[in-house]
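Quick bug: Alpha-1,4 glucan phosphorylase output formatted oddly.
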Amino acid sequence: MSSDMTMADATASNVSGSTDLLQRYGCGPIHFTGTRDALYERHLMFDHVVDPTSVGPRERYEAVARSVRDVLSQRWLRTEQTYERENPKRVYYLSLEFLIGRSLANNVMNLLLDPVVARVADEKGIDWLALLDEEPDAGLGNGGLGRLAACFIDSMATMQIPAMGYGLRYEYGIFRQSLRDGWQQEQPDNWLRRPDPWEVARPQESVEIRLGCSFEVRNGTFAAVPGRPSSLLGVPYDRPVIGYGGRTINTLRLWAAAAPHALDFQAFSAGDFVSALAERLSAESLTRVLYPDDSTSMGQGLRFVQEYFLVACSLADLVRRFRRTNPVGSPTDWRALPDKVAVQLNDTHPSLTVSELMRILLDDAGLGWEEAWDLTRRTLAYTNHTLLPEALEKWPLPWFELLLPRHLEIILEINRRLLDEARTRFPGDEGRIERVSLIEEGGPRKIRMANLAIVGSHSTNGVAAIHSDLLRTVTVQDLAELYPERFSNKTNGVTPRRWLRLANPALSRCITDAIGDGWITDLSQLAKLTPLADDGAFQDAVREAKRAMKHRFVAWLASTNGIAVDPDTIFDCQIKRIHEYKRQLLNALRIVVLYNRMRQNPDLDMVPRTFFFAGKAAPAYRLAKVIIKFLNNLAAAIDDDPVVRGRLRVVFLPEYGVSLAEKLIPASDVSNQISTAGYEASGTSNMKFMMNGALTIGTHDGATIEMAQAAGEENFFLFGLTADQVSGSAGWYSPFWHHHNEPETRAALDLIFSDHFNRNEPGIFEPLRDALLTGGDRFMHLADLTAYLEADRRLLASYAAPQDWTRKVIMNIANSGRFSSDRTIAEYAAEIWDAKPCPVP
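Here's what came back:
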């Protein structure tokens, strides 16, 4: 597409005469009448039946969003028609999370409609930034797992790979986070309170899902009724996934649960309202909330049914598509399934896909076991995202007996054959047999979902080189030795469209001015910046871009949160889910040490710094909530101390999500990636920071290792133990040694435990003492603190030399090309899915 005529320019011309231009630039025969803003005016007036002069910002947002959807609708239809006609192999990506953020600005960008939208906004007096804030972040995900899924479906559409994402349409996100006296408070995240203009309900494509029991109201709560089968209705809601340039528009299909039967009108009319509504309420509750609190068996059970509901709806839908384009006239026709369908399981949540596909092939298709098993394994692939044993899902076997008895029969038969194979390969090794088994014995019997996913698929991949190695050699070593050919690595990536072009317009312009805009769809082109690392003019441009984004963030923070921060301070950030292994507490200890240094030496010369934290703690994770409280109390104590005020600042930003990350990451100078080595699977915030010109202070963990290799360790600030040292620490590590022998460590801990940061709330930080000392410091905070402080010293020395610092920044940006999700998806497509692009005419 030429730089002087874009799809946006075509749309911006008089729309009645623009059909030829829209066809030329990829939109197909779109027929409009009126001027370029006719769609907006029509939606503004008729959708809400109001006078356009009296509408509010929400109505304006919906009118703009629906206008954009109108523009893409024909292309969306044509994409699906092309797939139906060409019958390519399709990828189906199953994930319990899709953390897509807001859609309007991203969709406008990917459709190249920026100029026309800017023009209409100017003519109509629309405050564009205020209008964007009317869209809530979609409550469809929580952390890196969901954001990765969102980046992946963006890349698949941009690369014209026939694909569909499958997830659940949660009415409420995990929760909205606020702070009260420094403590996390959880409120409902009712992100669908207002109509979502992007989704399209498809009730005509609903599917019925059968369960082995039913539910009724007993003593005011829902209770399972064994032996009385019931069913749920899965109603699909589709959202467009727009590839950059608008050539391909794939679909994210989200399933909402509904009751399959009409209201029991007789019971309702007789006054038995609860019984009449019980079935409907129990069904609709299934997709009410993302990640119900799993600290109770009821919450765990709801999560289990959510996972089956996702799997069953998605497989019913993709099999329906397969049969529509590959008519099944005899059992042998099913042999085409692995040639036409690739199913990727995003973590263990969709592992029931193995038993559900087997059920379909055995019971519905009438195939024999061997053929069904061969087709299942060749169709499915599994991505593991964790090395934490407690995060590898295991579901009680009685739940299968109650809800999914046929699945239990299939899983037990899979396991019988698996153990026979393992005993043949490794005779006499009963310890190995117990470890590879799909059934965990030695207590309440449970089904190991990760083992099921590995055994029932042809591919298992980790998401960073170190993670994949540890997965294969430690976490599931026995299965990897049984099936070594199935294991590989696919290092994660992030989409440069949202995380650089959209989030960081200042740096994007700087890069494009230097090397052109080809990097937007080929991030490896950023390597062209390497020769400019020492160029004075380019260094100035990069510094100016960072300054612009810092000022933009400061203005936004002041207007939305009432927090004033100094843009001339170092913005030092750690933004991610609050968890002990991610070690926000280690960062806090670093700050306490710096605070102590300044208190002891008020004249200490130190570059002023603002430390930003953001992230949510799971509602039942008490220690994570204590860490949030400590960070906020630390912030208050520093603000109240005249010795350090203006030189140190700690800010905890509530309600962390995609939209906040899009604002903070481009403004950041320093990225903290300090997880305990061997615990972080990959990380993706590290990649976003890198391509936005923030330097990393981090441990030898996750993808940070590969990032440092790409950019050069001299351009990173690495520190701390290696994964091998951590795994071998059980015999020698004692946190008390560090307390006794490291003066700054001891002073920091003693200050915390003296109630200095909680004078009016004595004892509230005792859980930190247990975590760091008496409990053994499982995640080795104290082992890495001194090395962290030394890396911090090196970081400050580099920052004090602007040319050296900016050179490091440019080298990081220039070498971030490998960490595009486009590269990751290309590897999945070639090495796991055997999927090819299918261009839409």
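Actually, after a second look the formatting is fine. The first strand starts at residue 90 and ends at 94. Closing.
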